[in-house]
Design goal:
Blueprint (H helix, E strand, L loop, with lengths): L2 H15 L4 E5 L6 E7 L13 E10 L10 E10 L3 H14 L26 H14 L8 H43 L5 H15 L1 H12 L6 H6 L6 H11 L3 H10 L1
Antiparallel strand pairs: 1-2, 2-3, 3-4
InterPro entries: GIR2-like (IPR040213), RWD_dom (IPR006575), UBQ-conjugating_enzyme/RWD (IPR016135)
GO molecular function: protein kinase inhibitor activity
GO biological process, one term: cytoplasmic translation
Length: about 270
């Protein structure tokens, strides 16, 4: 196999496929070296519509002297580019302050404050992605074939799939956190279930702590101007039977005829 010819031909093919994305560092054989900047298509999906960054992969290929009978050296560097300019950022900060919502207890509403698509970074995924490429080269038996286009396509597909898996998981965890917060807030209103026994126990303890029985007694005495109440008189044996009371009341009354006579003499 003419390795120089194989590598030169593949580089020309890649130039035609990626005219704007490919950057040749060294075109002379051996050790041909070039970069491909691969933009990921993420924001087109509804669940990532609020994404404010352009994620891309900078893929560096170096061809060993006997490539394609030997796998190329591959280095992947994730890149993030903001889709907003500085003026937009300032406007968004002002808008965010206006859009912040609070619950009935003054807590910031959690869900409205986090842009989940922007929270995902590819940095931690790169080691896993490199292993996937090595497995693909072996499992798909790419050794001996021009493989760069297949690897680039695989990188794009794997990165986009991984991103949406992470976003779905992040959304799930976020929903759990929101539900946890909501249950915690609801618990403040629900409180502990009250039974007859627990209420009576609480009432006795509360009245003792607040000295309510003594206060009520004092108020009763004040209401009678210091005189004994009927109950107190009864308990102390000072209440005569009803018949005696009635007789006393009849004896105290003046005859009606005497009252009339007194009025006529006036």
């Amino acid at each position: 196999m003419d390795y120089k010819e194989e590598q030169t031909q593949e580089l020309e093919v890649l130039e035609s496929i990626y005219p704007d994305e490919l950057d040749i560092k060294k075109s002379d054989y051996p050790n041909i070296n070039f970069d491909v900047t691969l933009n990921l298509e993420l924001s087109d999906e509804p669940m990532a519509a609020s994404l404010s960054k352009q994620h891309s992969m900078l893929i560096n290929f170096i061809f060993p002297e006997n490539y394609p009978d030997e796998a190329p050296l591959i280095k992947i560097t994730p890149q993030e580019i903001s889709l907003k300019d500085e003026d937009d950022d300032e406007d968004d900060e002002d808008d965010d302050e206006d859009e912040i919502e609070f619950d009935d207890h003054g807590n910031k509403i959690l869900k409205g404050l986090q842009n989940l698509p922007d929270m995902i970074s590819f940095k931690d995924y790169i080691p896993e992605l490199q292993l996937k490429l090595e497995e693909q080269i072996e499992n798909d038996m790419l050794i001996g074939m021009q493989m760069c286009f297949a690897l680039i396509s695989s990188i794009k597909e794997n990165c986009e799939s991984w991103y949406f898996e992470q976003l779905r998981e992040l959304d799930r965890l976020h929903e759990l956190e929101v539900q946890k917060r909501e249950k915690k807030e609801q618990a403040k209103f629900i409180g502990t279930k009250v039974t007859k026994e627990s209420y009576l126990s609480w009432r006795t303890k509360f009245r003792n702590e607040m000295n309510l029985d003594q206060r009520d007694e004092l108020r009763r005495q004040q209401a009678h101007h210091g005189r004994l109440t009927g109950r107190q008189m009864f308990e102390q044996g000072l209440v005569e039977n009803e018949n005696e009371n009635e007789n006393d009341e009849e004896g105290d009354e003046e005859p009606v005829d005497e009252i009339k006579e007194g009025i006529q003499n006036l």
